[in-house]
Amino acid sequence: MFIFVPMIFNKDTARKTAEVLLQVNAIKLSPKEPFTWASGWKSPIYCDNRIVLSFPPIRNYIRETMAKQIEKQYGKPDVIAGVATGAIGIGMLVAEYMGLPFIYVRPDAKGHGRKNQIEGFIESGQNVVVVEDLISTGGSSLNAVKALKEAHINVKGMIAIFTYGFDVSIKNFENENIKLQTLSDYNSLLEQALKTNYISEKELITLQEWNTNPSEWNAI
């Protein structure tokens, strides 16, 4: 029986990753003035990990840590796949560091030209690890996995920079039998934010409450 357990690399890596994401404002916390996600959810946190690409030391840390985790957890695959558009940049950096080919997967097939959903060269039966920048519900990430499987690609697993750790994402990955590894997670982020006085104890409680039921949460 397959039991899905989302895993982070280790506590030191989770802390360090949370630290650098906060440092460059890739993750913004605003409990008093929440953000509105595309889904309509009100959120005291907004994550845009693409910003790490603008900081060479940090993007190098992310790519090297991801590459080590991929080899440790999955072995060296034939190809690295990035999920468009957020993970194209970091996925390509990881592939370059590992000396591997790179492809990326669109949300849907193009409506013109070759009508590709998978961009780049890959052959049926090859092993791939999918790189993602962020896991929220897991829907878009698993949509990429579905496209790869339909192309008869062997998906070894997925690696992401950060996960919110929602119950719905855990169930979604479990249902699709996909192993997920992440560099950091929501709890590690809150611990680091509190330690560095990025948030107060009161804000910590708000952020914890939101994470337990994000679709129904409203700022008070």
UniProtKB/TrEMBL annotation:
Transmembrane segments: none annotated. This is Orotate phosphoribosyltransferase. Its EC number is 2.4.2.10. Orotate binds at S136. Residues 62-152 form the Phosphoribosyltransferase domain. SUPFAM superfamilies: PRTase-like. GO terms for biological process: 'de novo' UMP biosynthetic process; pyrimidine nucleobase biosynthetic process. InterPro entries: OPRT (IPR023031), Or_phspho_trans_dom (IPR004467), PRTase-like (IPR029057), PRTase_dom (IPR000836). Its cofactor is Mg(2+). Pathway: Pyrimidine metabolism; UMP biosynthesis via de novo pathway; UMP from orotate: step 1/2. Keywords: Glycosyltransferase, Magnesium, Pyrimidine biosynthesis, Transferase. Belongs to the purine/pyrimidine phosphoribosyltransferase family. PyrE subfamily. It comes from Mariniflexile fucanivorans. It comes from the Bacteria. One of its GO terms (molecular function) is magnesium ion binding. Catalyzes the transfer of a ribosyl phosphate group from 5-phosphoribose 1-diphosphate to orotate, leading to the formation of orotidine monophosphate (OMP). Homodimer. 5-phospho-alpha-D-ribose 1-diphosphate binds at R106, K110, H112, E132, D133, L134, I135, S136, T137, G138, G139, S140. It catalyses: orotidine 5'-phosphate + diphosphate = orotate + 5-phospho-alpha-D-ribose 1-diphosphate.
